[in-house]
Design goal:
Blueprint lengths: L1 E15 L3 E8 L3 E7 L18 E8 L4 E10 L8 H17 L7 H16 L4 H15 L19 E4 L4 E4 L14 H12 L12 H18 L5 H12 L1
Parallel strand pairs: 3-5
Antiparallel strand pairs: 1-2, 1-4, 2-3, 4-5, 6-7
Length: about 250
């Protein structure tokens, strides 16, 4: 049996039998991996805490004929602060669930893992609003996955000077000369477009370093809700719970 050591974050954990878990880890080395954690639900197991969602660290496992089995884990960040913040926790669960949707097995998901880690750090630091963190994460994640919008030039002619509307269906900006048949064009504030350009083009480490006005936040919300409705074929349970909780505040 081959032993491997991977660095990653637990995205989900599912009970198996009386005492075991099946977990999914986003790893730097092998993309998304599924593994069994035998006995991880026993109170005295060394894997009790390390196989919970949000756990980030180094996992040692061996490869069987059809699956991986975790032997040990060295966790460097549990993101324990989220346990004391219910709203923050459900933002975090949504980020995990969206990452789980996009991540692929045996693919290079280094940037995706960096994005998830930095996003959870931003949640715990509370330096910018959670709602803004959400829209930054969503836009950067679809960009990393190759499905991000064109926010620097017209998607049709490449013009960078003329006024433009944002079209979800066309996949980005459409200039005034090309917008005749665009039915879903949104006129966005210049600051909103600048914010989107920054998110799309910046390194992950620099993402959570700015704030926006209420108007820009509202436009980012509208853009990302419409964009994900078109390009993501899934409803996320964690997001539904989060939105219900926010409505009750």
């Amino acid at each position: 049996m081959n032993q491997i050591v991977v660095t990653g974050m637990v995205l989900s954990a599912t009970p198996i039998g009386d005492y075991d878990k099946r977990i999914v880890i986003l790893t730097k080395e092998h993309g998304k991996l599924s593994a069994f954690a035998k006995g991880a639900r026993r109170p005295n197991s060394q894997l009790v805490g390390s196989t919970n969602p949000f756990s980030f660290g180094e996992f040692t496992m061996y490869e069987g004929r059809s699956s991986y089995t975790i032997q040990s884990a060295h966790i460097t960040n549990y993101f324990a602060e989220l346990r004391e913040d219910m709203i923050g926790a459900y933002y975090g669960f949504y980020f995990l669930e969206l990452t789980l949707y996009y991540a692929r097995e045996f693919n290079d998901e280094t940037e995706m893992l960096k994005l998830l880690y930095q996003t959870l750090r931003a949640l715990t630091k509370k330096s910018i609003p959670k709602e803004l963190i959400r829209y930054i994460f969503e836009l950067k994640l679809v960009t990393i996955n190759g499905e991000g919008p064109q926010v620097f030039q017209c998607v049709r002619c490449g013009d960078k000077e003329r006024s433009a509307v944002f079209s979800v269906l066309k996949g980005g900006l459409v200039c005034s000369e090309c917008r005749m048949d665009v039915a879903d064009g949104m006129v966005l504030d210049t600051s909103t477009i600048y914010s989107m350009q920054f998110i799309v083009s910046s390194k992950v480490e620099h993402l959570y370093t700015f704030n926006v006005s209420k108007k820009v936040l509202g436009e980012l919300k509208l853009v990302m809700e419409r964009y994900l409705d078109v390009y993501v074929e899934k409803r996320f349970k964690s997001l539904e719970i989060l939105e219900t909780m926010l409505e009750l505040q």
